[in-house]
UniProtKB/TrEMBL annotation:
InterPro entries: aa-tRNA-synth_Ia (IPR002300), Leu-tRNA-ligase (IPR002302), Leu_tRNA-synth_edit (IPR025709), M/V/L/I-tRNA-synth_anticd-bd (IPR013155), Rossmann-like_a/b/a_fold (IPR014729), tRNAsynth_Ia_anticodon-bd (IPR009080), Val/Leu/Ile-tRNA-synth_edit (IPR009008). Keywords: Aminoacyl-tRNA synthetase, ATP-binding, Ligase, Nucleotide-binding, Protein biosynthesis. It comes from Penicillium atrosanguineum. This is leucine--tRNA ligase. GO terms for biological process: leucyl-tRNA aminoacylation; mitochondrial translation. Residues 55-253, 476-640 form the Aminoacyl-tRNA synthetase class Ia domain. Residues 785-910 form the Methionyl/Valyl/Leucyl/Isoleucyl-tRNA synthetase anticodon-binding domain. One of its GO terms (molecular function) is aminoacyl-tRNA deacylase activity. It is an enzyme of class 6 (ligase). HAMAP family: Leu_tRNA_synth_B (MF_00049_B). Residues 267-462 form the Leucyl-tRNA synthetase editing domain. The keyword NAD does not apply. It comes from the Eukaryota.
Amino acid sequence: MQNFSRIRLTPIVAQARLCARPILRPLLPSNAFTRLSTTAAISRRLDLPALDKKWQEKWKSDAESPRPVVQSTEPKPKSYVLSMFPYPPGTLHMGHLRVYTISDVLSRFYKMRGHDVLHPMGWDAFGLPAENAAIERGVDPAEWTEQNIAKMKEQLRSISASFDWDMELATCAPEFYEHTQRIFLMLYEKGLAYQAEALVNYDPVDKTVLANEQVDANGFSWRSGAKVEKLNLKQWFFRITDFKEALLKDLDSLAGGWPDRVLSMQRNWIGKSVGAKVTFPVTIEGQDGEVNVDVFTTRPDTLYGVEYLALSLDHPIVLKAAEKDSALRTFLDEASSLPADSKAGYRLDGVTASHPLRKIDNESAHVQRELPIFVAPYVLSDYGEGAVMGVPGHDARDISFFKENVNPESITLVIGESDTSKTLVPAQDAKAFTQDGVLTSHCWKYQGLHSKEAATQIVNDLKQVGQADFKETWRLRDWLISRQRYWGAPIPIIHCGDCGPVPVPAKDLPVKLPKIEGEWLKGKKGNPLESSKEWLHTNCPSCGGPARRDTDTMDTFVDSSWYYLRFLDTKNKDAPFSPSVVQPVNVYIGGVEHAILHLLYARFIYKFLSQSELFPASAHADNSGAPPEPFKTLLSQGMVHGKTFTEPDTGRFLLPAEVDLTNPDKPLITGTQITPNVSYEKMSKSKYNGVDPTECATKYGADATRAHILFSAPVSEVLEWDETKIVGVERWFGRLWKLVLDAQHQLTGSSLAISASDLNAAGHAVSLPSSLQDLSDSDTDAVLATHNTISSVTTCIESNPYGLNTVISDLTKLTNTLSSTPPSSPLVYYLSLSALLRLLSPIAPALASESWELLHQPLIKDSTSLRSILSSPWPTNLLTDEQAEVLAARGGQTVAIQINGKLRCAVTIPRMMSPITSSQGKGPSQEEQDWIISRILETAEGKLWLREKNDWEKRRRVIVVRGCKLVNVVF
Ligand code: ANZ
Ligand code: ZN
């Protein structure tokens, strides 16, 4: 851990008094002074970790005491803010900190906006990792998971995350998985859950079937690292493909709410391809007649360029040939574990294809040739027709395969920029021309047609002779949901010798997992459900005869495909949830690693359920308007990268102890004093760059940690975590704290009166006088800055939460404005500061809570009537647009203009109206500078000096300094 001393501010009351303004009464009322001095003893120093301790304890006891029933007269708008629930590994990481800070800020914001907010938390607690960890440690996965949940819950409290813990759920609890099983059976009843033999990925180490995405590009298991084998096994599937049209089409309704990138990842995964099925007649030596081989192609316009056919490893022709060809059998054995982009091929002896165009074109010599046929692992057996027409001239994979397996002298191009484009290119120089274009002289009567037109014509012509037809192909496959593992929801099916598979009757749910035996925990491999004899053997619910339970459990993606609906009704025993509570999630926040599968599965299950009796009738009415979608807005947050130190010569990762950070800007390798290389990389144990968020919160306080993680990057971008920069937040909080103490001092004894009920009810407890004529300059600045900040922060959180980082810079700026020229009237001081604190409270709840109390001590006699800032209303705009304009124009600000170092004139320009946030509090941003300069050029003096006496267009440098009070122009 880096060490540097943190600043601690120690403002002294006496100092504050020195800058007292005339409006302050010279003498404090004695009771106010007494109260001040008692609190002063504990609160003068800003100690953020101590504030956490105080407030977190209070929130915990508040949460445990019965909630007052608030009778609200008006129905509140509902908001459901959800962060993707974690798998409980026992320790919180920086990714968690980021996602939960974001969701916490949003949920606190909507609460203050008067919404009825649901912000629950639960545990994605089933799955292999818990099972493996339990085996390693010899403990029951249930116990291990429970301990981890308790630990993580404590850690979540330590970062001041406020979840609705009364809605907590864990997917491994029988009360939850009972309903996962119910949903399984609902799918089963509709024929949407079925068993089928499938060539599956089998991990011989973990002894389990893996989903395709759990196998890396080289064919190894994502978890155990074992070489994955292909086995044919009976598996359970969900028929997600029945919903493919809606899953694709309804993405359109999410535009604007979901990031475009995620929408296009979903589209690609569903993968609708429009093309044609083309039939190639194939002759096999020693066999009479021809057999037809169909291929799927999206580019029928390239048909004149076909050089070969390639078949998948389990194509019927290949399997047939393998019976007599032992070399082919060897190839197939080896090829099954080759990566999908492998160039390997096996040419089938005595098997050739004739070109389908021969049926219509007997002039072009090259379509009269017989084409070779290869077996190739790059052809997927479960896509299209499991066969490909190879067009080296126009497909990148085909050209490399062709060069590798045929060694041609030249490559034929049948499409080009124009119809006279070159058609033959020497193989060594050739690259595939993959765009659409115009058909070349190689293409008989189709020469000169554009790709699109040619494709249609060729397919139509071939259709006439029975050799092709238009066809759509989808990439989406049915969802393989069974796992041969223990730690998951058991599939609620009983297999009977007479009746076949029989659903477990609803009254017998849940099918609970049996307690597992010691032997298995000590490392016995395989599925313990198969060896739990008592559990396994049961009676058939239909005929009563002896039967066996299904020993598979469900993929954990099944749990997470519906958990967000359970949060709405966690106590419901009879059904997963009741139709009356159904509501989509308003904002869903999570990592981009779940952009495809989890979201797709959740969308599928939501659509399925929306047609069932579990949903309100309105949801399955035909003309209900918006299509059923579970997540209206999706915030997909970027990764958190850690500061990584490496030795420049060797690239070796350095341990924290090997780096001397006495000067955080100049790290040195201890001992050698060499400067290490610094980079930001994905946090990992081997790079020694991981950071523990709870340690950070202990050291700097949860508030500073939260503000820092929000500030460090826009939500969707990679965040480079640099702990040393947290000092920026600490300084800001220090300035804010000083302001609070100063305001407290000034308000003590002022005539400002505030009623607790106004405070609790309204966005502002007091209002500005109707005439703003008498505001002093500093008050005008404060009012305008506060007004603008309220509006920019509100708009950002509500309409552009991806820009949450700008909220921090807006709040920093307002703090700076108030600190540099404090308002002169207690009313304005109070208004600005109370608004600032309210805006801050979702981000830094402990600091805001403490400051809120301090600020109100002099104003509210009965402190018990002061509601916490966290349940106070969000500030509304201070001014009407018109007022804001009048104020901004009034008096204006004076800017001095220096030309080539000489002071030339001073002009008065309007005050800045809208807050501009990109400068992050470090001086005027480019936008602000541009704005100021345009205003200067509008003044007579500005024009005279910058346009007439000098040529503005020839300026070399323009610098805006001293809080925008001086502009330096160099010509
Ligand atoms: C000939 C061709 C020429 C192709 C060309 C492309 C470009 P998408 O868009 O993903 O649907 N293909 C068809 N079935 C395949 C399989 N089972 N395994 C691997 N590849 C297969 O891709 C469709 C294209 O992928 C098809 O169009 C086919 O190659 C290939 F210049 O046909 B094409
Ligand atoms: Zn039976």
